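F.,

This is the one I mentioned.
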């Protein structure tokens, strides 16, 4: 790769840039974000050229001769921008946390085959380029949805994923959104619920288990707004599933003679599955 365009220089886009700069010191990295981000000291050291999104008039010109354009902005912003970037007829991928609505937006373009939907399964509780890490994606799954994507787009994105140390994983958009509802979106809701509903006096007794369970609490509402909206049906099913199971477990404990058997069975099943879990 000789030239990569990063649209969005937060935690994900910034970490991609840092990893690419580390692997390819001479790579031309063009970053697009607000003027304030572009002018920051960390961006100045990372980028070959920065473009303030306020002054971005022509995405085709910005993408000219790029080996790859990476859209690392919120989901609804990706939906708004993706067809414009496809006009350049260069490989485009994204890092959106949901896939179905992004794919629907891209399908409106006659140049749809230049796009590979993607989602790196990596993150931190604190966002922004200041939290960027070139090793953020190492040994993490990078899910791609390669239907209707031309071969050269697949290959250049594969180079990116492998250079970042991530694990290439293929799914359909529907499979992806159903899976992340349980593995990402539901944990965020549960962690946030625990923190929001546990008083300071109760948290005085909190230990490592509480800290581990609530590490992701307090994520940016702006980012999660788009995720919840675009995956509302799958997340609703996950929440209903958990609510039903927890209510049933609560009933086993609320009688005159509490029955802990179902709880112990749950722990045993979880321990068995944890031992079989793949990375």
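My design for it:
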């Amino acid at each position: 790769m000789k030239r990569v365009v990063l649209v969005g220089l937060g935690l994900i886009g910034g970490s991609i840039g840092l990893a690419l700069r580390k692997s390819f010191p001479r790579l031309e990295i063009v970053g697009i974000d607000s003027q304030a981000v572009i002018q920051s000291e960390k961006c100045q050291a990372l980028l070959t050229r920065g473009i303030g999104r306020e002054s971005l008039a022509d995405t085709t010109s910005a993408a000219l001769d790029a080996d790859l354009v990476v859209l690392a902005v919120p989901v609804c912003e990706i939906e708004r921008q993706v067809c414009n970037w496809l006009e350049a007829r260069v490989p485009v991928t994204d890092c959106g946390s949901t896939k179905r609505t992004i794919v629907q937006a891209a399908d409106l373009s006659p140049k749809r085959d230049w796009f590979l939907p993607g989602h790196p399964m990596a993150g931190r509780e604190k966002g922004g380029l200041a939290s960027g890490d070139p090793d953020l994606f190492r040994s993490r799954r990078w899910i791609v949805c390669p239907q209707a994507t031309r071969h050269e787009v697949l290959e250049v994105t594969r180079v990116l994923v492998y250079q970042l140390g991530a694990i290439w994983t293929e799914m359909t958009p529907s499979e992806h959104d159903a899976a992340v509802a349980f593995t990402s979106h539901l944990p965020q809701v549960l962690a946030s619920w625990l923190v929001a509903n546990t008083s300071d006096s109760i948290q005085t007794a909190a230990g490592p288990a509480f800290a581990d369970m609530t590490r992701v609490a307090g994520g940016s509402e702006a980012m999660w707004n788009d995720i919840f909206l675009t995956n509302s049906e799958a997340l609703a099913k996950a929440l209903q599933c958990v609510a039903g199971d927890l209510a049933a477990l609560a009933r086993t404990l609320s009688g005159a003679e509490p029955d802990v058997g179902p709880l112990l069975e749950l722990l045993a099943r979880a321990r068995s599955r944890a031992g079989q879990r793949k990375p």
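The mean pLDDT is 94.

Talk soon.
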